[in-house]
Protein: ATP-dependent RNA helicase DeaD
Amino acid sequence: MTTSPDLNAAGFDTLGLAQPLLKALADVGYETPSPIQAACIPPLLAGHDLLGEAQTGTGKTAAFALPLLQKIDLKRAVPQALILTPTRELAIQVAEALQKYAHHMPGFHVLPIYGGQSMVVQLRALSRGTHVIVGTPGRVMDHLERKSLVLNNLSMLVLDEADEMLRMGFIDDVKWILEHTPAERQTALFSATMPDVIRRVAREHLREPKEIKIRSATSTVVTTSQSYCQTHTGQKLEALTRILEVEDDFDAAIIFVRTKTATVELADKLEARGYSVAALNGDLTQGLREQVIERLKAGTIDIVVATDVAARGLDVARISHVINYDVPYDTEAYVHRIGRTGRAGRTGRAILFLAPREMYMLKLIERATKQKITALTMPTPGEVANRRVAQFTQQVVDIIKSEKLDFFFDVVRRMEGEQDIAAREIAAALAWLATRERPLQMPGASDHAPREAAPVAVPPAPTFERKPARAKTDESAPAAESRRERPAKEGRSDTPVKQRSFAPGTLARYRIEIGRNQGVLPKEIVGAIANEAGIAGKDIGQINLFDDYSSVELPAGLSADLMDILRRIRVRQFALKTRVMEPGEFVDTRPPRRAPPARDSKKPDWKKPAGAKPEWKKRER
Structure:
């Protein structure tokens, strides 16, 4: 029997769900059920078996998770429900969803079990007791064979993405598991397609199932161009800021992260880099939320960092970019996210950050949006410099066209005469002053601006061979561009910082505001200075650690731009705030070195006659 979903369902409270579940749904911002949820929840609550044909991303996890949770007896810490998934990633995702929906069910335990995770960890968790198991077929079979998983009390079984399990060759394993479960269990099978093999499994193991077919809730997003950037966690912030710099037609953006804490942390980091940004999360009152949205509409902020829940219903015409800083849990959330741009016939831009372990989501999203998502590489420092120079040049041109500059002509002319400085030098100094907070040139870009070339072109950034620093850089410092030949280690900067060279000369002693009380090690100081400022280890002298500060010997007479970099470098979350130490400020508190003892003239002379063999050679034989 095939049923059609009630598309006009008023809310979850009409489906017969218990109050703890309704409260959890309200916490995460769910107001009305999706078609598959409205169609599946009532028959599953009534105890019927179910055969559901639904695409990934239609909300089917909640469709089976909510009835399953309502039937759990929290007093019995034994496996009462088993959910089989084709991949470990989906197993983790489903387990996290169950934990989220069971937020107001104290004592509830769900355990994901899958290959690649320590068997000892899983055995320990199983021995402590759990209510729901979410697992891949192979690892579930392993536990059943060794009797560490007992399904005698199983009341519900869910087969999620059955066609994927068929495609991956797990269908025989699934049948074996089904044969080792109680015959009176309730079974729900979900599949995006219904090949004959899946239907045979359903006929064999389901009892008079309700059949529900849902057309995919996602649709082609024709007005939004989509790209993805593969990057490691430690590089995401740097990749994000560089992409924001070079994106064309940027007006405003909404950046999606997974947690409320992450909205605040990322907003703070972007604000420190000069962006007008605000966080939007569930902790904000309705008044503050509306205030953020109004500021975005008015143009007083350009970026909002939000969670999925906080961004529900957000419709601001000027949003040109949606950036998935954290990959969404499912394709439905992705489609909802990028729906914040490209509305009412406008064009939009969607960018997705993916870690290597998250690349499996790419094909699912492409299938859901019916679009190819193009690869996007992190812009180089030279490309960012090009864009900054072009923007600065345009600002100068606009000012020349729109402002009266007679007074300033006189100022420059007077400086030329009184200070004997060329107008070109004055212009360069003024450009430096104007861009001091946002330098036109990033570390790693070319050292020289073009002379006779095109007015806004900057040569591509050169690359420099250098050994990676041993010390890990601080996470709050700007992350760096990955090397193309292999991925960077998380938390380590791999920006090709140009190795600076210094003429042989004296070293000066500099003070840095971090010491023993912060737990710093000399090698961390050396690594940070070498990695971020490009000063080679051979040019770094003695380091002395004190309680609240340290001193380090570096080449004397460092340039202002290099001193600025040294001031901003962070080690263990502390800015170095480097400055030259005043004469007499440094006092070496180390005890004087003891002179070597005089050789005792009475001791025998250890010299051997010519040709004699040493005693240790004889012993070695």
About this structure: The chain is about 35% helix and 15% strand.
